[in-house]
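To whoever picks this up:

The parser on our side crashed when reading a file containing two proteins. I've narrowed it down to the boundary between the first structure block and the second sequence. Both blocks are reproduced below exactly, byte for byte. First block:
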Amino acid sequence: MKRAILTSLAVTVLFGTASCAGQAPDDLSPDARHKTFQEDPTKDPVQTPGAYAGGETNTFDHIADLGAGVARDPFDILAQRQEEGPPEVRTRLHSCQKLQYGTLRNILVSLGVDMEKKSTPPSAGELWKGAAGALGAANYDARVGETILWSSAGAAKLFDIFVQAAPEIIAALPSVEQCKVDGTGPAMFDAQNSCNPDAISCLIGRPAMSEHIAICNGVVKSASDIEAGKKIAVATILSAAHSCE
């Protein structure tokens, strides 16, 4: 008996819902609808073309400019775009994601760094292992995912790791597979301690520009000694390449 009553109620609700769904909405009074939508009052609104289309009196007017509610001078917008640079530069400035913790290790390994090496002061591998928090690594025990934005501590630690890894990278670069052309890899520096453009291109993953070469040579020459300058130059190039600078 109870099952029959429940079935009857379900059928009633179902048909009642279906019949309501077929009715035309009645949001406004007939006078308001006629004034707003210019529908034919003698016809069902659903059958009147454009009965619920927007008109001049009921459509929001979006402001066609980039300002906060006030139209801006097009030349002002142009000047801002020129200062910010081309689209690919503006996009990187506003969408730079932090280098993932595991990815940093893969990059170091691919450049010939021994991540298991132990030394005093700590090696690049030891710095990487102890910098999980600063580098924003995920903490799965605490149900905290990896951060996606750089922090000051993370950027500073990244540079420290690259400085410690620089001697190994410089020594291994000629034998790094992704840097080889016709089976030969480039040396990071030539006999005059100048930066090799091909080596810089391998480190940053794109053709080295004159600015890259000038910065690299400038860092080497301005350091307290040549060897320290080489390490700082390599770390500077890698840090900039992997932090959208």
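<<boundary where parser fails>>
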Amino acid sequence: MSYTLYDKLWNLHEVTQRADNTYLLYIDRHLIHEVTSPQAFEGLKLAGRSPWRISANIATPDHNVPTTDRSKGLEGIYDEVAKLQVVTLDDNCKEHDILQFDIHDRRQGIVHVVGPEQGLTLPGMTIVCGDSHTSTHGALATLSMGIGTSEVEHVLATQCLKTSKLKNMRVTISGELQDGVTPKDVTLAVIGQIGTAGGTGYAIEYSGSVIENMSIEGRMTVCNMAIEAGARAGLVAYDKTTEDYIRNRPFAPKGEKWLEAINQWKDLISDKGSYFDKEIIIDGSSIAPQVTWGTSPEMVIDIDGSIPEPTSDSMKHALDYMNLESGKRIKDIRLDQIFIGSCTNSRIEDLREAAKILEGKKISSTIKRAIVVPGSGLVSKQAIEEGLDEIFIQSGFEWRAPGCSMCLAMNPDQLGDGEHCASTSNRNFEGRQGYGGRTHLVSPATAAASAIQGSFVDVRDFIS
């Protein structure tokens, strides 16, 4: 019988089917941060329970940590609620002997950057985290899903997740990408085609020559936004690129165990003839740099496009919130801030991509603030060793410490009311980056080029 990658991962971890047609799924890795874990640990305490498998858990603060004044440690967190969440994570990890990359640790960073970077994300695993963008880890042939706080408690207590089985969708992106078109553009184009509900009830497997030729970091960007297409999980099959990425990472298998692991991992592909409930095929060569214009990731068009006529009340509301009119060219939207970071685009390849555009140039005097936030301390260290920080600083960007930063504005990094931002994050919802802030999702390359221009610009003009 032929199985999809999702079905194989599911079958390896299914514990039992319940009377209500839900399942218990065994969880190999549980990633923890400071926002969704305090209530879960409190629930364990009230019930007199302890985490069932300590070694399966790994923690790092990311949402609330400041990206400035980091030398002050916890004292650099001026919001008392934010500080309490970080302190509570410290206390819970110490009490239960859970490994944490705390605010003082060079390895600290965004949880979805840290996991793969450390080799904590391994092919064949089931991975959960109290964060919707856990789908990121599917780039390494894992079944990875975001969970709620009550589920965080359940996984801590039982190492199992109560869940329902998903249907299979395959998105095949064929051909080759144009120069200047990036994985972020690919995933935005997919969402633009199928909509934010197109993947509801599915696990999406991404395939085709464009995906096969992507780095793991690029695949993580694509899988990161599977959740924005409505899917619970995004996946990419195991291949030599996966193996090369994982090799020699701190928590990856070593010696004989490494040989045993790669022998098992090679089967983490969808079998020929396996059935997918839904198939989407996209010609990669047709994808242009993408920019969102509204308040949902599906409200996205090519950089050369114009804002469409509204065909629904939600589109009308989005235009009103964004203070835009149909027919306006994307390139005519003036920008106030630029943000390069988030679990979508804060890895070393993303920073290299932006720095290549910015080198020897200055950002527009009309840009009020431009910040770049590495995804982890190790990404920051590598970028500094390569001189990328100096390129950003000399161009007019602020170089920050690792964290989620302006992606969701749970710290001082926020947009002002009415400000337009070219952002490499994953959500452009109302107020996502600050009250009244207007977010446009783009790739790091487009963000960098637009910072120079002061308005959206086709990055292909900068590399031709």
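After patching the parser it read the second block fine. The domain at 5-163 is CATH 3.30.499.10 (Aconitase; domain 3). DSSP finds 16 helices and 19 strands in the chain.
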